[in-house]
């Protein structure tokens, strides 16, 4: 059985990762979207995540419950180890990942495809303000984050999401599912 692909969606805050992932899952119901564990209040909105306390997160991380985990924006994020079952069964898995964890993802999974999402800086700032989840200080800190270089051995597709989301979705689908001739 060929392993499923670990499809990592990365890029700065507000660039449209979750919007793109929503659309990809609608277009491809066979994709497994990772439900992350996050130490964020349950009512914060946005993606469907499992809200966990900081104490529970540490306990679970120590017990090996996460295949990848990291900290950003004062929060902890974890990807449940159960996704290995999907990958082993040949199913593709879609995850919103920190750019800083790509190296670990490349080491952890046999097949990794990275969708690197970008947008013009002023577009990013406008989208984050309109989303309304973060304070202006939080937004500035998110936009100041930088990314380490891309690891070797992973497939990479760059997508500029400054324009219409539909165009980005089409580009992602074309890269992930090239038409057979
Ligand atoms: N191509 C796009 N055009 C216009 N608005 C977009 C586009 N992509 C995303 N957005 C909006 O920008 C905001 C941030 O998008 P989101 O998907 O939450 O980004 P991320 O997950 O990368 O932080 C949301 O309000 C979303 O509706
Ligand atoms: O190391 P970085 O590549 O900067 O990424 C840091 C974190 O930011 C995003 O989180 P989250 O989904 O909470 O934020 P966002 O919706 O604002 O992107 C991303 O999914 C990572 O968890």
Automatic annotation (TrEMBL):
<dbReference type="GO" id="GO:0019634">
    <property type="term" value="P:organic phosphonate metabolic process"/>
</dbReference>
<comment type="function">
    <text>Catalyzes the phosphorylation of ribose 1,5-bisphosphate to 5-phospho-D-ribosyl alpha-1-diphosphate (PRPP).</text>
</comment>
<dbReference type="InterPro" id="IPR008144">
    <property type="entry name" value="Guanylate_kin-like_dom"/>
</dbReference>
<dbReference type="GO" id="GO:0005829">
    <property type="term" value="C:cytosol"/>
</dbReference>
<feature type="binding site">
    <location>
        <begin position="11"/>
        <end position="18"/>
    </location>
    <ligand>
        <name>ATP</name>
    </ligand>
</feature>
<comment type="similarity">
    <text>Belongs to the ribose 1,5-bisphosphokinase family.</text>
</comment>
<dbReference type="GO" id="GO:0006015">
    <property type="term" value="P:5-phosphoribose 1-diphosphate biosynthetic process"/>
</dbReference>
<dbReference type="GO" id="GO:0033863">
    <property type="term" value="F:ribose 1,5-bisphosphate phosphokinase activity"/>
</dbReference>
<dbReference type="Pfam" id="PF00625">
    <property type="entry name" value="Guanylate_kin"/>
</dbReference>
<comment type="pathway">
    <text>Metabolic intermediate biosynthesis; 5-phospho-alpha-D-ribose 1-diphosphate biosynthesis; 5-phospho-alpha-D-ribose 1-diphosphate from D-ribose 5-phosphate (route II): step 3/3.</text>
</comment>
<keyword id="KW-0547">Nucleotide-binding</keyword>
<protein>
    <recommendedName>
        <fullName>Ribose 1,5-bisphosphate phosphokinase PhnN</fullName>
        <ecNumber>2.7.4.23</ecNumber>
    </recommendedName>
</protein>
<dbReference type="InterPro" id="IPR012699">
    <property type="entry name" value="PhnN"/>
</dbReference>
<dbReference type="InterPro" id="IPR008145">
    <property type="entry name" value="GK/Ca_channel_bsu"/>
</dbReference>
<feature type="domain" description="Guanylate kinase-like">
    <location>
        <begin position="4"/>
        <end position="181"/>
    </location>
</feature>
<keyword id="KW-0808">Transferase</keyword>
<keyword id="KW-0067">ATP-binding</keyword>
<dbReference type="InterPro" id="IPR027417">
    <property type="entry name" value="P-loop_NTPase"/>
</dbReference>
<dbReference type="GO" id="GO:0005524">
    <property type="term" value="F:ATP binding"/>
</dbReference>
<keyword id="KW-0418">Kinase</keyword>
């Amino acid at each position: 059985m060929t392993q499923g692909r670990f499809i990592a969606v990365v890029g700065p805050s507000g660039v449209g990762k979750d919007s793109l992932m929503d659309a990809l899952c609608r277009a491809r119901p066979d994709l497994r979207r990772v439900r992350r564990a996050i130490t964020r209040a349950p009512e914060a909105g946005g993606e469907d995540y499992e809200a966990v306390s900081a104490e529970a997160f540490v306990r679970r991380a120590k017990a090996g419950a996460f295949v990848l985990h990291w900290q950003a924006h004062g929060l902890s994020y974890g990807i449940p180890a159960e996704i290995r079952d999907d990958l082993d069964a040949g199913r593709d898995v879609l995850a919103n990942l920190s750019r800083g964890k790509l190296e670990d993802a490349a080491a952890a999974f046999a097949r990794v495809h990275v969708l690197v999402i970008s947008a013009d800086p002023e577009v990013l700032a406008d989208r984050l303000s309109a989303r309304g989840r973060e304070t202006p200080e939080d937004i500035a800190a998110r936009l100041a984050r930088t990314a380490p270089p891309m690891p070797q051995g992973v497939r990479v597709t760059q997508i500029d999401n400054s324009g219409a989301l539909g165009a980005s979705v089409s580009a992602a689908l074309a890269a992930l599912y090239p038409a057979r001739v």
